[in-house]
Design goal:
The complex is a heterodimer of chains A (1010) and B (188). Chain A is of the alpha+beta class. In chain A, 23% of the residues lie in helices and 28% in strands. Chain A contains 26 helices and 51 strands. Chain B has 188 residues and is of the alpha+beta class. Chain B is built from 4 helices and 11 strands; from the N terminus they run βββαβββαββαβββα. Chain B has helices at residues 37-47, 82-92, 117-124, 168-178; strands at residues 12-14, 18-21, 26-31, 57-60, 63-69, 72-77, 99-102, 107-113, 139-144, 147-153, 159-164. In chain B, the strands form 2 sheets. Chain B has a 6-stranded antiparallel sheet with strand order 1-2-8-11-10-9, covered by helices on one side. Chain B has a 5-stranded antiparallel sheet with strand order 4-5-6-3-7, with helices on one face. In chain B, α1 (37-47) runs antiparallel to α2 (82-92). The chains are: A alpha+beta (1010), B alpha+beta (188). Chains A and B meet through β9, β15 and α24 of A and β7, α3 and α4 of B.
């Protein structure tokens, strides 16, 4: 059984007992435990079931490489699936559930898949479910989803209770990994004067060294680690962050750090995770190495663990996974586990060393303890079950016959080590194959390159392929100094700490145990635990012609699980290479992509949630609008009132009321969102003549002109009223959505094309609150305000004619008044300082009371303009429409030599008389045409679809006319006045509409010109 | 004349730093040739401040001038004088190719002070706010989360941040959130 030992456990505090639950069962652990160590201490060997075959699985590793022990943590709005027990710190009240089983962990119906494994081989889904197609959606997919998969998704209706944030940081040297290599590298870089940031994913420093032993500067590694941390903490140019994983390396020295602030103490307030967005001149990866499993049958039975991880549990947390342990290895390091277990009082029943020649001094030390060591031997299989009970031993160089069965309750395995090269590789660092150690290591000659073509990542320590403590420290001191130097800090001579560890004999690559294991064994020999990929699957893929490692990965799903194949990749490659009769370096690795380990979506989103999910742009009158019934409509990031609904009033009724009142009395529109660009300079007139299709340079000071803007491809992109302010200044109004883009468009032409033209543009959109005062009583209300508060602006027809503007005082307000109309009514658009916008609006509402003033929203704005046949950018245009389509030829200057779009308008397709053109549409029965409906033509096209001859671009109920009105683009439309055409709706009905003039109301324009 | 109001109307929040609406501030966008003598003289006359170096703001008692781009400055003057000063600048620069526009009301303006001020800003803006890099007089036009902003450091250690008025409430929410009392990073 797995249990807590009486002694050991350097990371736990036995005086602080912690209660937690696993699958509802109450358990006890200690402060400092990981969830995995606490579960083992409670003899909870089995921690989940596998993805595909639902086999019992236990914890196999002790860190972020763990493939099996995935948990559903927390409850309700703090629930999260797929969390590793090994990287979860224990806290009081923690609630964990194992996943991927039904109805329970101990008894699982779908473990029948295990018996069917013969049929569930690589590529099974591809082969089995491709036909018949319809069955996929209704039968196969639901069943597979139930059977395969990880934890349950959180409740879609709940919101994460926690908050998250980002943090931008800049450093000369970022060291990823706080083991002895990372600390040594940080120290040398810092002593050279560089600003250093050290990231450590765990809550403790020093990495494996305290567990693995040896000595540093003649002392225990722990002493050196403490001393070095002390030194680093005392240096102003060093920042140390634990619980902060370096998760990815990106172009130009960009590093992401994933800091887990409250996972170990949820609910204490403040952000849960912080995503560090770091710019570094140089990056040192000191990310260590990961032990590889051995490939033997039953290597996934709970109780089979990585040898060094088993050592971690004993030394760090005082937990032993078993009482009678078999150690299987192909290298010397696993002997450390045998010694460690022995010292802890655990019986090591056998060490099975696949090497005929065995190991060195460490092996001798084990033998001296009286532990039986067998050379050239292998594990033939571990008996299936919810935990290890029996282990069969055979010759390594055979097929697995002549087995000796021994009783054991745990197996420690070591297939050698793989440097963690992920961060080195994220941005293109290349690897070379080290034959002696049978692993890929960073090739220092081919690092990821920065913008100057020089490498910006240096791998060091075990992640650089050094497994000996002395070599690790030497390499790290050098790496730190080099990084500082490359970051511009001439290296001081920094001597490495002197590390000493037992010498190790050469390892021997063992990719299959026993070497010629028969098919029955290979089908129970797991490579990728999390995705249930076996040796036989990779071999099958090779037989079926998958030669590329990337293809094999996708076909078999090897390395595609949430652990991204940290344990399985090299073992899988080796099997593939062997099956292809090739060498491992020729087969190569799959691509290493960030993040190194899954990070939370919350951390990626950062602060963007709730009120600050997105900026909402608010006009100066926003709060008043909100308090007065505004039914909000998003317009870009702005919110504009669609209508002002009175209590008990529907949107439709509100709109009709606003339309009628504006036509008959007085309406106010908050038009502050319209873009306002000042264009000034000696060449401003020439510039605007290029920007607009019509002439702006000859506009007289004090006057306004409506203008159209086309893209260089001739398509209509924006419109608005331009006012000439003085000799070399114009003010251009844009659409609400066009303010920023047209500003950018102008700057683009001025900076990139006509850089020698003397023109400046300033976006003053938000300087002003702009109110459209519209209706027959518009002049009266303004004059009343003038009378009440002594404003001096003459607003009479004579003093301020249509399409002119004036500066002056209206009431107490400094204002600019434009006599422009988008409604066909007498209308003034008045701009005042934004800070006074609300006050101005209040004054209008108060003075307008006797004129029956009402605010109106964007829908009324649309209806008023549609009744007048005015086009709207975004309704009548969609990026494919040109001014000619809208009968706006009058706005295309013939006098000008050039303007943006002119050349494009000459192209044959643009000049085609068959282009659909703007007309008005009146339903025969007065109903409202569906928006976007297409007009039916004759016959069908080559694709068997109904031919169409036009479409509805704007459609409304006109309260003024008491019927539906619409505009649309129709083939030969203006020549077909009076014709009735048909619009099939999506509601099954067909609408008949007569083609009419698009101006429905006040065709002579008398109302606006009073 | 009515009382002009800011978008966030005196809002305040205190956490790891104090965040507050800094009130109405006269601001003038000035575009032109920053090396021209006429422009330098006009800036000095309007604000009392010199034309700043790239990435800097020059602050004096009566106003300030901040570097926005190779041909743009942001001038700070008392709110009540912004209209007149804009006209004065235009007059002084007559004949020069230049543009002066009063943008006082187009902006929201905040003050961030206290121990955590650098960290609050470093959470929302991709700028190196470390004390050795972002020194008093430093000025940056950048991004704060999803909106554009300009930020600088005063001699007294407090920061000022300017954004568009329409996103004033967003900015205040952003700054207050970043100043959560339990969110100190502990690096500055």
């Amino acid at each position: 059984m797995s249990t807590r030992l009486a002694k050991q456990g350097r990371l736990i505090d036995r005086s602080k007992q912690i209660e937690f639950t696993f699958n509802g069962k109450r358990m006890l652990g200690y402060a400092g435990d990981s969830l995995a160590s606490a579960l083992l201490a409670n003899d909870q060997m089995m921690m989940g079931r596998s993805f595909k075959y639902h086999r019992p699985r236990g914890v196999v590793a002790s860190g972020s490489e763990e493939p099996n022990a995935l948990m559903q943590l927390g409850k309700g709005d703090r629930y999260e699936p797929n969390q590793r027990a090994t990287t979860t710190e224990l806290f009081s009240g923690l609630s964990a559930q194992s996943q991927n089983h039904w109805p329970s962990l101990e008894f699982d119906v779908l473990s029948i898949n295990n018996k069917l494994s013969r049929f569930l081989t690589a590529g099974f889904y591809y082969k089995m479910f491709i036909h018949p197609r319809p069955l996929w959606k209704h039968l196969y997919e639901p069943i597979i989803r139930k059977s395969a998969g990880l934890g349950e998704a959180p409740d879609a209706e709940l919101k994460d209770a926690d908050s998250y944030e980002h943090f931008y940081f800049f450093a000369d040297v970022v060291v990823v990994g706080g083991g002895v290599a990372g600390l040594q590298a940080a120290k040398s870089a810092a002593l050279s004067g560089a600003k250093v940031l050290v990231l450590e994913q765990n809550n403790h420093w020093g990495g494996r060294a305290p567990v693995d032993g040896g000595s540093i500067d003649g002392d225990a590694p722990e002493a050196w680690i403490e001393k070095t941390l002390e030194e680093l903490r005392g240096m102003a140019n060093v920042t140390l962050r634990d619980r902060c994983m370096g998760s990815g390396v990106y172009d130009h020295g960009y590093v992401l750090g994933y800091e887990r602030l409250t996972d170990h103490a949820p609910g204490q307030g403040g952000p849960r995770h912080r995503l560090w967005r770091i710019r570094a001149k140089q990056i040192v990866t000191a990310t260590g190495a990961i032990e590889r499993p051995l490939s033997f049958a039953g290597n996934d039975v709970p109780g089979v663990m990585l040898a060094a991880s088993m050592r971690d549990y004993v030394v760090n947390w005082g937990v032993t996974p078993g009482q009678k342990v078999v150690v299987a290895t192909n290298n010397d390091d696993a002997y450390r586990t045998a010694l460690c277990l022995h010292e802890a009082g655990v019986e090591v029943v056998r060490v099975v060393d696949a090497r005929d020649t065995g190991g060195g001094a460490l092996m001798e030390a084990v033998r001296e303890k009286g532990i039986r060591v067998e050379l050239g031997r292998a594990i033939a299989k571990v008996k299936d079950g919810p935990r290890v009970t029996k282990v069969a031993i055979c010759a390594q160089n055979g097929e697995g016959g002549a087995q000796e069965e021994i009783e054991a309750d745990a197996v420690a395995m070591s297939g050698g080590w793989s440097p963690v090269v992920h961060l080195w590789s994220h941005c293109g660092g290349k690897l070379s194959w080290d034959k002696d150690h049978a692993f890929f290591r960073p090739d220092p000659a081919r690092p990821p390159l920065g913008d100057t073509g020089v490498g910006f990542v240096i791998a060091t320590g075990s992640s650089n392929g050094h497994l000996d403590l002395g070599a690790v420290l030497k390499d790290a001191a050098k790496a730190g100094a080099e990084a500082a130097e490359a970051a511009g800090f001439p290296a001081k001579s920094v001597s490495a700490a002197k590390g000493e560890a037992e010498a190790e004999a050469a390892m021997e690559p063992v990719w299959l145990m026993p070497a010629k294991a028969d098919i029955k064994l290979r089908m129970k020999t797991w490579l990728d635990y999390q995705n249930d990929v076996k040796v036989s699957d990779v071999q099958l893929a090779a037989r079926e012609g998958y030669e590329s490692v990337e293809h094999t990965k996708r076909y078999t799903t090897l390395g595609m699980a949430t652990d991204q194949g940290k344990l399985s990749n090299i073992n899988g490659l080796a099997i593939l290479a062997d099956s292809l009769n090739s060498e491992i370096p020729q087969v190569g690795t799959t691509t290493f992509r960030p993040p190194y380990h899954p990070i939370s979506m919350g951390a990626i989103g950062g602060e963007a949630r709730g009120e600050i999910f997105q900026p909402v742009r608010k006009t100066p009158i926003y709060d008043w609008n909100d308090a007065n019934g505004a039914d909000w409509e998003p317009v870009g990031q702005w919110r504009r009132p669609f209508a002002y609904c009175r209590s008990g009033e529907s949107r439709h009724d509100a709109v009709n009321r606003e339309v009628k009142n504006t036509r008959e009395n007085l309406g106010l529109l908050d038009a502050s969102t319209l873009g306002k660009l000042i264009v000034k300079g000696p060449d401003a007139g020439k510039f605007l003549d290029m920007m607009y299709t019509n002439m702006m340079s000859n506009l007289k000071v004090g006057k306004c002109r409506y203008g159209l803007m086309c893209s260089e491809n001739g398509f209509l992109m924006d419109d608005g009223v331009v006012a000439r302010i003085d000799e070399d200044t114009w003010l251009c109004h844009t659409t609400t959505g066009g303010a920023e883009s047209i500003h950018g468009w102008m700057e683009d032409w001025l900076q990139c094309e006509w850089w020698d033209w003397k023109v400046y543009v300033a976006n003053v959109t938000e300087q002003y609150a702009q109110v459209a005062v519209v209706g027959p009583k518009a002049r009266k209300v303004l004059e009343k305000i003038n009378t009440l508060a002594g404003g001096g602006m003459d607003l009479s027809k004579e003093a301020l004619p249509f399409m002119e503007w004036r500066d002056g005082k209206i009431g107490g307000f400094n204002a600019r008044a434009y006599r422009i109309s988008f409604s066909g009514e007498l209308s003034y658009e008045i701009a005042v300082a934004a800070s006074e916008g609300q006050a101005f609006w209040d004054a209008l509402m108060a003075a307008g009371k006797e004129f029956n003033v009402m605010p109106y929203g964007t829908e009324t704005l649309h209806i008023l303009r549609a009744e007048k046949g005015f086009i709207m950018i975004g309704d009548e245009t969609d990026g494919t429409v040109i001014p000619q389509d809208l009968n706006l030829n009058w706005a295309l200057s013939k006098k000008k030599e050039d303007y943006l779009g002119k050349r494009a308008h000459l192209r044959s397709h643009m000049a085609d008389p068959d282009r659909w053109k703007l007309v008005g549409l009146e339903t025969v029965d007065g109903s409202v045409l569906p928006d976007g409906a297409y007009a039916k033509g004759n016959g069908i096209n080559a694709n068997g679809q109904q031919n169409v001859i036009g479409r509805v671009t704007s459609t409304y109920f006109s309260a003024t006319l008491g019927r539906g009105i619409a505009m649309g683009l129709v083939k030969h439309g203006p020549k077909r006045m009076g014709e009735v055409i048909e619009f099939p709706g999506t509601d099954g009905k067909t609408y008949s509409a007569k083609i009419v003039d698009p101006v429905f109301y006040d065709k002579e324009g008398e109302k606006q010109n009073v | 004349m009515s009382n002009p109001v800011t978008a966030t109307n005196g809002a305040q929040f205190t956490g790891i730093a104090m965040v507050e609406d800094a009130g109405l501030q006269g601001m003038i966008t000035l575009r032109g040739d920053l090396t021209s003598k006429a422009l330098k003289t006009a800036v000095k006359a309007a604000t009392g401040a010199k034309v700043p170096e790239q990435g800097k703001i020059s602050v004096v008692e009566s106003g300030a001038a901040a570097w926005m781009s190779p041909d743009e400055l942001l001038l700070l003057v008392p709110y009540g004088e912004a209209v007149a000063k804009t006209a004065e600048l235009a007059k002084a620069l007559e004949g020069e190719h230049a543009l002066a526009a009063n943008v006082s009301d187009a902006r929201s303006f905040f003050r961030i002070a206290g121990e955590g001020a650098r960290e609050v800003l470093a959470k929302i803006s991709p700028v190196d706010f470390s004390p050795e890099v972002f020194t008093p007089g430093s000025f940056r036009r950048s991004r704060t989360a999803q909106v554009a902003a300009a930020v600088w450091l005063q001699e007294d250690g407090s920061f000022r941040i300017v954004c568009f008025r329409s996103v004033g409430a967003y900015m205040f929410g952003l700054l207050s959130n970043a100043a959560h009392p339990r969110s100190a990073v502990g690096v500055y």
